[in-house]
Design goal:
Chains A, B: It holds the Pfam family PadR. The structure is a homodimer. By secondary structure, chain A is mainly alpha-helical. Chain A contains seven helices and three strands; from the N terminus they run αβααββαααα. The C terminus of chain A is likely disordered. The structure holds a DNA duplex.
Chain lengths: 190, 190
DNA sequence: TCTCGCATGTAATGTGTTACATGATTTA
DNA sequence: TAAATCATGTAACACATTACATGCGAGA
């Protein structure tokens, strides 16, 4: 439902071909919306049919294998503008790692540590990438209103990653304390 | 992919009928994995075919409209145990609100305030619910290892909601400062 | 010419959402 | 007995993921 608008937002900032869009989604746009190139091509075609974007005219006939540049049309800008103020309910939560930890708690399975450690590592990588973007694009600059808002969106990603990493650390601490229990508790198990 | 295991985890904690499961997903399980009753029925049938769960025998023939209680089988426990230690990559981010704020930044549309305010309100509600569960089930209790892990999962939800709410506040502050700009900047706009 | 990388796409499958259907039990 | 509620489902659709297909241009 939102991919359509994520693409319109991306094209508002800059016209692009399908693959360029896919790359932008892999990089900067990915910290708030991810999409594969297959999704993007399909959605671009729909947006073109709906008259919200158009292909910029190029020399030569447009064929398979030739890059096609898309730009947003006024109708697309209007649709995006209207959507931005919608009061939609947030997407329901689906966090596989939380399921794992809860299941491991029920099963008494200390092996989850591997899953949590992995998750922590991936999120630490993502955090570094965000912090690098922040340094490169926003830190030590005089930002206008748009720049400050863009930075806030990046900051949301950074906040989420930090929260996640801290939580992983708390779980790992708890797991390790269970493996080396104190003297009071657990004098007779397994 | 994970719904299957979320159901197995739920049935590990307690055998349930389809609708009871749907209710548990609406309440406590919902803070880490959400699912509709239609999904749950479909998945329970698959799990039964795969031999991971079974229906508890009941007096009378099992027919449409009659409650069917499901319990996890040893094969189900094994499958869950194995999955818990999988080092899967986290799900890609898809946050519509971030797209909205970023799009609004590009469009210069202060109307996003409505969307952000709404999102903040919903997340504040969810946070209250989590905090109530924490008070009811975990606070002022002597928790065993399983209890402490269960609480940590709830804490993850609480942390996420708090982070989100703070971020919404930061965005709202920025939006309002743009509507009432200081004297230095913006002496000639619109 | 053969391979590689770029660019655009198709097809199949899986997962989630929405709307509706069916039957049993309770209660006004 | 009629309506509401509980409980289990079916069907159609939308969206996402994975694997693969097609065509072009550059360079070995």
């Amino acid at each position: 439902m939102s991919l359509k608008f994520a693409i319109l937002a991306a094209l508002t900032e800059r016209s692009s071909t399908g693959l360029e869009l896919a790359r932008r989604f892999d990089r900067s746009i990915g910290y708030f919306w991810s999409a594969s190139h297959q999704q993007i091509y399909r959605e671009l075609e729909r947006l073109r049919e709906a008259g919200l974007v158009s292909t910029v005219s190029r020399p030569g006939p447009p064929e398979r294998g030739q890059p096609k540049e898309f730009e947003i049309l006024p109708a697309g800008t209007s649709a995006l503008m209207a959507w931005t103020i919608n009061q939609d309910d947030p997407a329901p939560m689906r966090e596989a790692l939380f399921v794992k930890v809860r299941a491991a708690a029920a099963l008494g399975n200390p092996g989850v540590e591997a899953a949590v450690t992995h998750d922590r590592q991936i999120h630490a990588q993502i955090l570094s990438r965000y912090e690098e973007i922040d340094r490169r694009d926003f830190q030590d600059r005089d930002l206008d209103a748009q720049g400050r808002m863009q930075r806030l969106v990046l900051q949301a990603g950074i906040d989420l990653e930090r929260t996640r990493i801290q939580w992983c650390d708390a779980v790992l601490t708890e797991l390790r304390s269970q493996q080396q229990p104190n003297h009071e508790a657990d004098a007779s198990s397994t």
